[in-house]
Amino acid sequence: ITNFYEVLPADNIETAFWLESDRMLSLAFTPNSLEVQRSVVIEEFKQRYLNQPYGDVWLELRPIAYKEHPYQWATIGKEISHIEEATMEDVKAFFKRHYSPQNAILSITGDYELNQVQDLVQKWYGDIPMGNHYVRNLKKEPMQTEARSKTIERQVPADAFYYAFPMPNRLDDRYYTVDLLSDILGRGKSSRLYQKLIKQTELATEVGCYVTGSIDEGLIMISGKARNKGTFEAIHDAIWSELDLIKSEEMHEDELRKVKNKFETAKVFGDQSALNKAMNLASFELLGDASQINHELEKYSQISTMDIKRVANDLFDRNKENKLLVKAI
Hints:
Blueprint: H1 13-25, H2 31-50, H3 57-65, H4 80-84, H5 88-98, H6 114-125, E1 148-154, E2 160-166, H7 174-186, H8 192-200, E3 204-211, E4 219-226, H9 232-248, H10 253-270, H11 274-287, H12 296-301, H13 305-315, E5 322-328
Parallel strand pairs: 1-5
Antiparallel strand pairs: 2-4, 2-5, 3-4
Helix pairs in contact: 1-6, 7-13, 8-9, 9-13
């Protein structure tokens, strides 16, 4: 998904319509603008992926976790040559295919009447050609049947570890359970991995667990920094001891309630922002039904301790482990 968005006073909403409809109707393509933006993106690639510690982790990890699905590619490309070799024809064709009304979602939040917004949409977008409809047909990632591991050496402050396990897609009801499971394992100082790796064993200086939030089958991630060099094996054993525990023992209801309360608080505060509302509405519409935004809290609230245990057993299979170790030199 590409987000173009504006936040502006309600009285100036038509300015946003003018800007975005103009961009969609007739984006300026000139040799000079292409080269300027090419240079900008190359510098972004260097700054984000090459010139900072651990910057290339996702460039290394994606091809480990994905063998067929396009998620093996970072959006910006796998290497600078992919940016350098893009032609004007490539850019024009990509824009024409993906940035037309047939592939766009317009989300507007604020103090407006529906008929007012509908009139503005018709005025500024009504004459823009719809574009050719196409069906996304992405390769399905095969089920992983054996663990994958890679160790790289980098000039970084500390050894780092990254574990990735395949998880259900965004439309799967289990997605919400996996999301809560990631919070139980690695969100905050009371989480299980924090207590195990930082407080009890003192093997790590930081650790977290999170989901990638991908529309297709994504990843649940465990990552962190080692306190001392040469402790990857001990860290591995400590992580799996916690994963095996949550697979074998049903958690206490109070622990699950605490995580649900944290999520609900963050959700309620986030929804106070007009921008967050607009982006969430667009995201759910992309998934197929904007109205599902009204049922998200309900789906999280219905998750049980047995759901957590069952999904943990589905996810944390040693044959589905994707591990990247960054060794400091």
